[in-house]
Structures
1.
Amino acid sequence: MITVYLWLIIGFVLLIRGADFFVEGSSSAAKLLRVPGVIIGMTVVAFGTSAPELAVSVTASLTSNNGIALGNVIGSNMFNLLMVIGLSCILSEMPVDHKIMNGDFFYSIVISVVALALVAFDRKIGRVDGVILLALFGYFLYRVFSSAVKERKGTEPVRRELSPVLSIACIVGGLVAVVAGSSLVVGSASAIAEAFGFSENLIGLTIVALGTSLPELVTSAVAARKGENGLALGNVIGSNIFNILLILGISALLSPVQVTVSTVYDLICLILVSCLCWAMGKRKMCYARVHGIIMVVLYASYMVYVVARA
């Protein structure tokens, strides 16, 4: 058991150091490409930090543990909205861009409603539903890259700190460390939870979801501390969109996802939380520290509800 705790510590070290290099490389890449950091956050960084969720959900689908796949997506998105944004803006107030709030953040709410509608129709997410989600993901990528091209045309070259090769090395090396650290943390935490007698479903919705969201948490927190607010917020929004459209879409294509009544409630909670977080940021185009405290308290309350329900 002591070995498990040791791996847990090593995992956290890899997460923190990997995220530091990952943010540095991503920030430099944004300057190299002459695009806003938020676009890099919603694409390169979001895809990288969503790798653990993708691995866990696809593995769960292939082994017919679809409940874990869907629970992982919902739990990760709740964690991203309340804990990642919350802790990031507690560390440093986070100004937001109205284009992001009215565009991609609002789009993440819309697709959550779409997911709920697909679930409510026949209490499952089938292969046709998976195709719909992946089509919406294709549209999201089209919008982001179209925006990147427009932004690049209107942006002057800026001085950069890292060379192209070093930027790529930091992104790849940091991502490898983040994913490896996340894997160690999830595996160790799951082993500890099982030793204490927690159920598989509870582990999937809480510990696995929290563990696979650690890359988003550490990356966004480090980005916020470095003043890369666009990258921090873009990482959260992009990751949530990746989780619902890409990860859930692929999982449904591999094996239809059966949905329980409690999962429907969780989806409704996710939509309500998304609307609340959107409204808080939209009001003054900034997430203040008080918003972060409210978000963290809400997440703690949600965890109490989930554990009590189990």
2.
Amino acid sequence: MIINTAKKRIVLDLKNTEQTAAIGKALSSEIRLDILKLLIEKASNVSEIANIFDIPLSSAALHVKVLEEANLITTQEKPGVRGSQKLCGIAFEDIYFNAFKHKNELDNVKTYEFNMAIGNYYDCSIAGRCGIISEKTYLGVEDSPYSFYDNNRFEAQLIWFGTGYLEYRFPSYIFKNNRVAEVSFSFEVCSEAPGYQNDWPSDITIWINDHMVTTIYSSGDYGDRKGKLNPLWWSDTLTQYGKLKTITINSLGCFDDSVKCSDYTVDTLELGKEHYISFKIGVLPDAKNPGGMNLFGEKFGDYPQGLKMNVRVDHEGDRKD
């Protein structure tokens, strides 16, 4: 069995030093290189890796963690005789390192930031277990899609649902008379389980201008510790925090964090065609892992932001037609 069969290109540079260093660390071990060779041939669980390389199970788990954190492999929990095991698969095809990218970006480059409150969605379609809370209280009635049309929904700091989507619209005026080199969207997200379940996989899909650009794999609904920004009244038995994800579109394609996820570019997505850029996030009812989603605001979870769009402009006043 092979998991995550779509292999992507990983693009590195000296600007995103955290990701570059993580991959450098992952590739600096001969045993981890051998594990990658194994996973190219077949998906394997942690016990199998430990047996094949004659290393302790704890060491195999540590090597897998380092490779997963570097986005070199994907993991998926699978039930086994002695409890669940992580099934590991290769996640990339090649790695491209542009050492001069940060230097080339210094001239005639400007970045614009647009922040969107998570309650400021333009449209939605919600089903299953769902709800919205502000910093102080629940908004509307829990598990009722009617709550998503509450007059106070703009105060939302946490939104959750089983299946469906939220659509946000960002202004696109920056594309007028400017050459846009890159657009990125960042947000904190996780799965949605009753209470919380750290092992609760979900496939969270992203659409940009109605094009499906990627599906994010979320391994769980995280609640093993208090979210760094959570209000005191929020119960410890519920969702606490998510993972910060960044979707980037440039001339090379579309990237889920640093891993290429599709061939869509700034031009092919026609980001400047309308007066707005549509960003849609949700869970399909027929997803392989329909584990719902939680979306975090600036005062909830671990990261002090809602949904953020960054636009990098090269050569202002010189639009590329």
